[in-house]
C-alpha cells in the first residue's frame, strides 16, 4: 500500500540503446547507485517502471527496495510494433512513464522528481535558505520548501523548480560515479545545437498543482492557488482570510544548486574543472549499498555491469 510522502521520484527502467546496446549493464550498475543516493538524501519513495525484456536484469537491483517498501514497481507490457524509424517509440515510453507517475503520485506526495536519468544527481550548493545555514543531508525532501521560501514564496505557490546541468566525467571502473570530481567548465550544452545553447533543464514539480508533465517541464498546471492568511482582529479574535494567488516557477541559479550529469568518458580532456561537492558522499553511499546488498562494492558493481537483457526481439529499444 502506497503511503503519504513528501518527496518521491519516478524511475524509468534501464533501457537498451539501439546505437549502444553494450551500455545496458552500465545503466543497471548506475541504477543501484542512483536509488541509494536518492534515499540517502531524502527521497521517500520511488515509482519504478519496467518494460518487457528488461525486467529480469533489474530484478536483483529492485528487490531490496520493493521488500523494504521503498519502491513501487509498475510493469508496462508494450505491444511489439514494426521497426519503423519514423516512430519515436522511446519518446512514447518516456511520455507513458511521466504521465503515469504523475497520476500515481497525485494522492501520495507533494514534490515529484519526474525525469532524472540514473547518471544524474542533484546537488544543493547553498545552505543560506536553512535556519542554521547548513545544507541538511535530506535536502531532496526538505530543499524544495526551503527554496520556495528563499524566493519569498510559500511552497504552495510554486508549481515547479528547474535546475541546470553540468557534464561530469564518469568515474574509474569499479568506483561510484560521484567519486569523480572532474566536470566541464561550462553548463551542459544541447545536442545538435550551437555551443552557446544550454541543455534543457531537469526539474521537480508540486504534484498538487501539476496537471500534465513532460521530460523537462510541466506542460499544464494550475495557474492559481489558495493562500490563507490569519489576521488578528482583537486580542481574542483571529480571522482567516483566503485569497487567490498566482502559481510560479523557479529557475534555480547554478550558484544555488545544479545537476551532476556523469555522462562523458572517464579522463575526457574537456572535464578539467575540479568539483568535489559530491565526492564526500562516496563513503556513506558505499556503506549504504554494501549493507543493502550484502556484498563489497567493487564486486557488486562488476556483477551489475555485466547484466544482460533478454533477446533483442523482446526489448524496448530506444
From TrEMBL:
Q: Which GO terms describe its molecular function?
A: glycosyltransferase activity
What name does this protein carry? Glycosyltransferase family 92 protein
Report the membrane topology from the UniProt record: Single-pass membrane protein
The record's similarity note reads: Belongs to the glycosyltransferase 92 family.
The record lists the lineage as: Eukaryota, Sar, Alveolata, Dinophyceae, Suessiales
Please verify whether the record's keywords include Membrane. Answer: yes
Main location, first listed in the record: membrane
Q: Any idea which UniProt keywords this protein has?
A: Glycosyltransferase, Membrane, Transferase, Transmembrane, Transmembrane helix
Q: Where in the cell is it found?
A: Membrane
Q: Which organism is it from?
A: Cladocopium goreaui
| InterPro entries named among the record's database cross-references | Glyco_transf_92
Entry's Gene Ontology cellular component terms: cytoplasm; membrane
